[in-house]
Amino acid sequence: MKISRNNFIKKIGLTGLASLCIPQILLAANHPNPFIKNKGLTILFQGDSITDGNRTRDMDWNHIMGHGYAYLIASRLWHDYLGKDLMFYNRGISGDKIKDLENR
């Protein structure tokens, strides 16, 4: 397979550009969230069965946030901001509709 000079220069240029961008991308990924400034922030997940995520209704701490996106977000934020004393509540109710959420 023969590579033309133009293709070689394009590929080298793109590789160089990518190598310059990667450190900035990594820095942006590790930048702290500006919304989590104070200690003791409470985050409420309110919604339908997708929010509920098959959560437990008792004090089983292994399943209190469910298995869905509320659990994933809460565990990530809790890990990233361990010293901020964040509190998470999942109040999703399976079968709720928009009008039910409005009434709550």
UniProtKB/TrEMBL annotation:
Gene3D superfamilies: SGNH hydrolase. The keyword Signal applies. Keywords: Signal. GO terms for molecular function: hydrolase activity, acting on ester bonds. The keyword Signal applies. It comes from the Bacteria. Residues 1-28 form the signal peptide. InterPro entries: SGNH_hydro_sf. This is Uncharacterized protein.
